[in-house]
Amino acid sequence: MTRVSYFAAGVACMALLAGTAGAQAAAKCITGAHKAPYTLGWANIYSVPTWMKQTTDTISQEVDALKQQGLVSKLMITDAQGNANTQIQQIQSMIDAKVDAILIDAGSATALNRVIADACAKGIAVINFDSLVDTDDLTAKVNTDQGEWGKEAAEWMVNQLGGKGKIIVMNGPAGISVSDDRRKGAEPVLKAHPDIKILAETNTEYNVAPAQEAMTNLLFNNPEIDGVLSLGGALSAGAILAMDKQGRALVPTTGENYRQFLELWKKKGLKGWATMQPNWLGALAAYTAVEALQGKDVPAYVKVPLPIIDDNNLATYIARTKDFPTDGYIYSPYDQAMFAKLLTQK
């Protein structure tokens, strides 16, 4: 497991400002006898995307550490293959198996609410991270601020273009909370700068190939663009590859900590900005569940600060590429000490 470096400073600041992050959960949902070592369930919406594979790896690594501490005995992992109804059934199976805690990356903001309420009513700790549900009938939610994600990306683009220009907006899948919330966060900034004209907008999977195809089609219809407001890293890589293949000049592009995007950014010398949805949100969810099961108070909402990648620290991320898959995400370091600071939020 990697260790805290530059990211720790952001966490420390967040801990000091944590009074605004959410109400204290006091281990909501947890009733009955829960004795270590605990059994955890990881209800994954889909396992194919590399981001999810890396996330599962961080959960497994954290569980291994908790096993060594005598706090966890077993991790049950399911894969709903992108189907919310399947995810509901798998969560129900975890309830029936009487796991102590369930970690959920939701395939729907609403469809899981009933089964989550059932888990809560039966005394199971429920930790929802990344893609969130719209119910608070659970132990805790763990996430970055996706609205802030979109807002900061849009502000960077406006500044790069001096408040005037033609842009293409690239979103992730419609109906997924992280995608929708990023776009909602960008909207007030774009509305406040009417000279930033949106030529076209698209929703694609968080994968390079469909993003490149979508961008290729948009470029044919838009011979002049000044920026790409991409709200996902693989989308950014696809956009750059499409522009490059057509011999188009590269324009300021926002994105995420997707390895190929960062490498293209460095190689092509483009003007870029990125943040991240750290894969270790899953590990933090596992840690939070175990803390709650031990009777400790945890925040109802664990807010993780957004790490920013720009020209000042891009080289730091590029230097760590060997530790990450070619089609993966270069996420910031983490450890249990950092997790403990995040859980001091009130």
TrEMBL record:
Keywords: Signal. InterPro entries: Peripla_BP_I, SBP_2_dom. It is found in: Cell envelope. GO terms for molecular function: carbohydrate binding. The keyword Cytoplasm does not apply. SUPFAM superfamilies: Periplasmic binding protein-like I. GO terms for cellular component: cell envelope. Its main location: other. It holds the Pfam family Peripla_BP_4. Residues 1-23 form the signal peptide. Residues 47-297 form the Periplasmic binding protein domain. It comes from the Bacteria. Belongs to the bacterial solute-binding protein 2 family. PANTHER family: D-ALLOSE-BINDING PERIPLASMIC PROTEIN-RELATED (PTHR46847), GALACTOFURANOSE-BINDING PROTEIN YTFQ (PTHR46847:SF3). This is ABC transporter substrate-binding protein. It comes from Lichenifustis flavocetrariae. The lineage of its organism: Bacteria, Pseudomonadati, Pseudomonadota, Alphaproteobacteria, Hyphomicrobiales.
